[in-house]
Amino acid sequence: MRGYAVIALAASGSGDLDDAAGVLETLPDDSPGRGTLAAALLWPMLRDLRMDLPALRRLERVLAIAEADPPDVPKWPGLRAAGRAISLMLASLESRVDDPHAALAEVEKLATEAGPGSPAAPIFEAARQGLGFMAALHDGDESAIRRMPEQLGRLRAGAGAGAGNPQADLLTELLTATSELMAANQRGEELSGPMRRMREAAQRMPEDDPVRISALEQLDMLDSLANGGQPVDFGTSPSGAAQSPADQALQRAYSAMLLLDRGAETDLGKIEAAIGHLRAALELAGPDDLRRPFHLAGLALGLFRRTEVTNSTAGLDEALILLAEARELAGGPDHPQWAWINDMLAGVQQRLGAVTPAHRTSMEGMRGHAFQVMVQSDLPAATVAAADAAREGLNTARRFLQDGDPAGAMAALDAGRGLALFAATELGRVGARLRAAGRDDLAGRWDDAVASGQPDRLPTALRREAMRVLGDHGTLGLLDPPGLPEIRDALRALDADVLVYLMPGERGLPGHALLAPADGPPGYLTLPNLHPDQDLEVGHYLSAAARRDMGPADEAPGQDEAFTGSLDGLCRWAWRAALGPVVDQYLPRLRTRPTGRPPRIVLVPIGRLALIPWQAARRPDGRYAIESVAVSQVVSARLLCHAAAQPPVPLAPTGLIVGDPRTGEPSLPAARAEAWAIRRAFYRGARYVGRRPDGTDSPTGPGTVAEVENWLTSTSPGAGAVLHLACHGFASTGRAAAFLLLADGARLHAETLGPLLARAPGRAIALVVLAGCRTGRAISGYDEAYSLGTAFLAAGVRSVLSTLWNIPDAATSVLMFMFHHFLMAGRRPVWDALHQAQLWMLDPARRIPDRMPRELRDELAATDPAEVAAWAGFVHWGR
What we know:
5-stranded mixed beta sheet; 37 helices; Serine Threonine Protein Phosphatase 5, Tetratricopeptide repeat; globular; CHAT_dom; Nucleotidyltransferase, domain 5; CHAT domain-containing protein; 4 domains; 6-stranded mixed beta sheet; alpha/beta
């Protein structure tokens, strides 16, 4: 009877729940009312839910007792639903759920059954968040993983624990750090940073908090293993609590990844220990565990690393078998480890000299990167998903070149470049592809979400469902880069002669130029001097540019002199290392030579080569590359074909001109004069917003974000097709942010452009000129190349001019006037108008157009227009 009293006291809220649950479990199965007692305990356990594994397991056991002999009371269905939701979340955490999406669906059903006013609503939401995170890990859903801290905050607020609850804040910090560690392990990333942040979060909690104790125990265990500590009994935690097989498998996998140091470990003892942990993890997890592909590939990584350290091939045959099974279980590009598994398999095949060429396997893996980027719902998540794609593409390209296959090398490079931009260009086409696959229902949901212009209406789950349907119908060719026939057609449509990938050398290997002409076979040139990371001239330029970018170019004379001084050596290196061989050795051998214009090359610079002003490459005799060839740039062959497929948009003397709005940043008086002059000379029908040359606001608008957005989406015939932005632009790689600064300091962000223009699918914009600073600077890695300029292209703009560096306000204003002069008065294509304007800046006998106003003539007289910094910072993209 005493046991019944302990349970009754705890059920009333006056006793110890842990003691009561322990007493309940000791009662014989046939004890009278055992199920009723369990149900009575269940509510206070749910009400005062503790988010540590022992407490969750105890709750699950109490639920099982109640379900075995359920009480006939009105509250029971609701209690059972809430308990089952927690049980599902626990099962997912312990890898006992085969399909987290099915578990999520069950939670939704349980919540519906409980009703909207259920007191257990916070529990259902907690289960949604926990299962949602596990599903995100399973799917590689970086968007959901990244949103986890925000969702935890909303969950805490919804439960009544706001910012005034320090304990809840500390728990959120710890859960966020824990999710970061789990995500890093899932991606195969370095774990020491996430472990340190998790430890710091745990140590800020009260010393007697069971969540803190459990977290620190797990971290101590992992630290001990990573630092070669004593063997660990994975059957129990340091506090003596029993561990499930799934827990043990997960801990061993974590430990192995720490020991292997992402495949860079050289200590043979640690490598052998990691191999042992992964063998045990496979046995513990069983054949149906969702993480089995990860464990298999991890064991293969350990075996492969051992062969590298011991300089032998022992174990590679086993690694080949393991990876083949992992690949079969993964199934295809939709699996988050698909790219990693195939990259590992390619490495093993190369070491063994397998019949299947390693680079073919690598290309299969590259499709996984494209898939994972396609299904992310925001730019930061897409950037994470594409993190290793460019490196793997470069390594695979080298394998193709070893086989003398430049076309394959180009495809490999392209497969790892500009994936987030490519995903943006494909958004509007997926609906049609789904209809062709017979899924009108899904196509309708997709098109409605795209038309809304709201990224959260197109979540990862919908993207993943669409991509899987397309894969099932054999239409996932969109994951593959274009072939040579498509590239040739695009070059002809754009009136260009050759696509040139500039591939830097590394680790003693030479660089290369890979060449795809509009007419003729592909080829490549070996470029032994194309080592930007080893060249002093390149280093001097990059350092000077970084210092100069700290502030306005016209207000930092010392920094400006250092930067301009660095350009001469850089430009001579650029000719010697790459452009010289292409122009002098390759172009004369073109099967079809252009007539009536200079040869035109479209560059795809790889890695840090994207920071080089290639049009200013300088011959030994002092002449610049643009005096021999016209140079445009493109992110990838995918985006080259995208630009070529867009119908041209005719120009008219209308549009929108934005001139130096009041932003709170330093004024740009020359840019203001430039914008005003361009509008008066060439676009008399255009709307002018911002400030006039005298500093007063334009009566047609101050240059707000809303004014620019409204123009971008306008379907009015009088809106025009040209946007000239003479205003501040910012790009920060640290925060992965690029934006235009408009009136009142408001920002127009790059990542909003695609969703914005998707709301106006009939809008056709011919040209966007980004005359501000660093508008061509990539914010998400050189090879992702996501910038303000390329974001406009991906959104459907036909041509874009953007800048490489912090441009000088005065001299650049003259260049911009001349560009519009050649474009509108000379009726030249956009690429040629920029080319002619840059040549005009170099020409000592230049003729000043009658339309150039006095203010710009004065700027011209006060500066040296032939100085490289004045003209070479502008790059043409698109048509």
